[in-house]
Amino acid sequence: MRLGQPRSRLEGSPGHPSSGPRPAISLQRVGKDFRLDRGTTVRALDDLTLEVEDGQFIALIGPSGCGKSTALRLMAALEEPTSGAVLIEGAHPREAVRDRRLGVAFQDHALLPWLNAWDNIALSFRIAAQKVDEDRVRSLVELVGLEGFEQARPKHLSGGMKQRVAIARALALAPDILLLDEPFGSLDAVTRRRLNLELQAIWVEQSVTTVLITHAVDEAVFMADRVYVLSPRPGRVSLVREIPFPRPRDRKLTLIPEFHALTDDLHVALDTQATPPDVLGELE
Ligand SMILES: Nc1ncnc2c1ncn2[C@@H]1O[C@H](COP(=O)(O)OP(=O)(O)O)[C@@H](O)[C@H]1O
Ligand SMILES: [Mg+2]
After folding, report:
1. Whose CB among 22, 82, 129, 166 lies 3.0–4.6 Å from 109's, allowing a Cys bridge?
2. Are 230 and 60 spatial neighbours (Cβ–Cβ below 8 Å)?
3. How many angstroms separate the first and last alpha carbons of the chain?
4. Any idea which of 139-143, 191-195, 207-211 has the lowest mean pLDDT?
5. CB-ligand 1 contact for 67 (6 Å cutoff)
6. Handedness of CA 86, 91, 93, 96 (dihedral sign)
7. Interatomic CA distance for residues 58 and 144, integer angstroms
8. Threshold 0.90, pTM exceeds
9. Would you give the DSSP letter of residue 91?
10. 65 CA to centre of ligand 1 in angstroms
11. SS3 label, residue 86
C-alpha cells in the first residue's frame, strides 16, 4: 500500500539506477554477533531477511532477547551487521541518518528532563543545526494532542504524554521512515489503545514508512500492513502475515473473527517456538 505523495527522490537518486521501485528498508540475510567478555560471542540475529515498502507499516514481534532492538539499531546505523546487508532506500543507513530521513523513538522515550514538551520536540531542529520551525512544532503538538501542555516538563507529563512527545520529536523533521521500539511498552492498556488509534491517524496523515516493535500481538495486527514474527535468539523470520484490513481501522476491528484468527495464528507461532540454546558465557 502506498499512501500520500510518492517521494520523487525514490525514483532514482545518484548512484541508484531507477530500475523499478526499491524497498524503503531492506535487510538481506543479516547476522549480528556481539562479542562478550572472555572472547565469547552472542549471535543476536541470524540470516534475518525482511523488506519494507515505501509507505508501509510493519510490525516486528518476537520473544524478549530475540534481537528486535538490534534489528532496529541496524536500521538506524547504530550498529553494523556482522554479515549480510542493511539498506535504507538502497543505501547504507548512515546516509538516511545524515539526511535526517529517519525518525527514531525508543522505549525509554529519552526526553530531556529540563526541557518542556515544546522544547523537547524542537530539539530535533537544534540537533540538526536547523532553525526551529515553530509552525511545524505547533502542528505536531496538535497532531499528538498535547495542546495546553507545551510548557510542561517531562516529570509533569503522564507516561502516555511523554510517549507522544517522543513520537512528535521523531516526526519533527518529516522523516521518510519512522522506527519505533516498543513505544507503548510501559503504558496501561487504555492509554495504549488510545495511542494506537492516534498513531494510526498520524501515520495516515504523515505517510511515513514505519517499523514498530511490539510485544503485543493485537497491537501489531491492529496497526500493521504486515507482521513479522522473529524466532528466539538468534532472531530470524519465523512467520510473516499480511494484514488485509482496510484503513482507517477502529476498535470494532478487534471484535471480528478474522482479527482473532490472525492474532491466534501469531500467538501460536510465538508460543510454539523453541527456547534459545544456551550460549557459553552469555551474561543474561
Ligand atoms: N551491545 C550489546 N552487547 C552485547 N550483547 C548485546 C548487545 N545488544 C544486544 N545484545 C544481546 O543480543 C540479544 C538481542 O538483544 P535485543 O536486540 O535487545 O533483543 P530484543 O529487543 O528482542 O529484546 C540479547 O541476547 C542481548 O543480550
Ligand atoms: Mg528490545
Report:
1. 166
2. yes
3. 40
4. 191-195
5. yes
6. negative
7. 21
8. no
9. B
10. 6
11. strand
pLDDT score, position 274: 64
Query: Checking phi first, is residue 65 left (phi over 0); if not, alpha (psi -120 to 50) or beta?
Result: left
Are 205 and 248 a contacting pair, CB within 8 Å? Answer: no
Report the distance separating Cα 198 and Cα 204, nearest Å.
Answer: 10
C-alpha 179 – ligand 2 centre gap (Å)? 12
Q: How far apart are CA 3 and CA 38, in angstroms?
A: 49
CA torsion sign for 177, 182, 187, 190 is positive
Kindly provide the b/e burial profile for residues 136-157, where b requires at least 16 CB atoms within 10 angstroms of the residue's own CB. Answer: bbeebbebbbbeebeebbbeeb
Question: From the CB of 66, is ligand 1 less than 6 Å away?
Answer: yes
Backbone phi and psi for residue 171, each to the nearest 5 degrees, phi listed first: -90, -5
pLDDT of 78 higher than 80: yes
**Residue 283 banded pLDDT, cuts 50, 70, 90:** very low
Facing residues of 134 across strands? none
Residues pairing with 255 in the sheet: none
Phi-psi map region of 51: left, alpha, beta (phi>0 left; psi -120 to 50 alpha): beta
Q: Is the CB of 121 under 6 A from ligand 1?
A: no
Supply the residue whose CA is at minimum distance from atom 13 of ligand 1: 44
Q: What is residue 46's three-state secondary structure?
A: strand
pLDDT in tens, 86-128: 999 999 999 999 999 999 988 766 899 999 999 999 999 998 8
Which residues are CB-neighbours of 78 under 8 A, at least 6 positions away?
none
- Residue count (the chain): 284
Residue 5's pLDDT band (cuts 50, 70, 90): very low
Classified as helix, coil or strand, 210 is strand
Residue 257 Cα to ligand 1 midpoint, Å, equals 36
From 36, 111, 34, select the one nearest 70 (Cα to Cα). Answer: 34
